[in-house]
Amino acid sequence: MVIERRWKKWVFFYIPLSVFVIGTLFPFYWMLVTAIRPDAELYRSWRAVNNAPFWTLQPTLEHFRDLMAKTMFPRWLWNTFYIAVASTGISLACGLLADTRWPGCGSRWRACSARPSS
Questions:
Q1: Sign of the CA dihedral 33, 37, 41, 44?
Q2: Which residues contact 34 (CB under 8 A, 6 or more apart)?
Q3: Helices (H) and strands (E) in the chain, counts
Q4: CB neighbourhood size of 41 (10 A)
Q5: Are 59 and 37 in contact (CB under 8 A)?
Q6: Nearest-angstrom CA–CA distance, 23 and 17
Q7: Which of the two residues, 49 and 75, has the higher pLDDT score?
Q8: What is the C-alpha separation between 113 and 95, in angstroms, rounded?
């Protein structure tokens, strides 16, 4: 079915798509703004006169420096990467073995027996 009128396309496609995209991307934007916001601005009251909740006035990378210098985050990140690569390799190996036809199996969907099927 082709939408013949331009307003129908906007109402039924572009507006819902825009709402979905904004709703999906907004948490990522909020995390980024919160990460680069200085502490004084981060803990300011919501009712402050000069409060700007959706952007920051003085961005800083201090939180990232503290994360890398004062915690064991690089090691945790490496451990997570190592476990992800190892589990992916194990899953690929098991999947490859499960997909291989072994001698003694007649059909892919029949159970294997000790003797080859005739």
A1: positive
A2: 42
A3: 5, 0
A4: 17
A5: yes
A6: 10
A7: 75
A8: 21
- pLDDT tens for 48-65 read 887 888 888 899 999 999
- Token pair for 93: 């190996």
DSSP state letter for 45: -
Q: Give the C-alpha separation, 35 to 63, whole Å.
A: 7
Which residues are CB-contacts of 88 (< 8 A; sequence separation ≥ 6)?
none
Q: Residue 102: is its pLDDT beyond 80?
A: no
| Domain-wise residue ranges, the chain | 6-44+53-90
Confidence of residue 16 (pLDDT cuts 50, 70, 90): very high
| 13, amino acid identity | F
Phi, psi of 31 (to 5 degrees): -65, -40
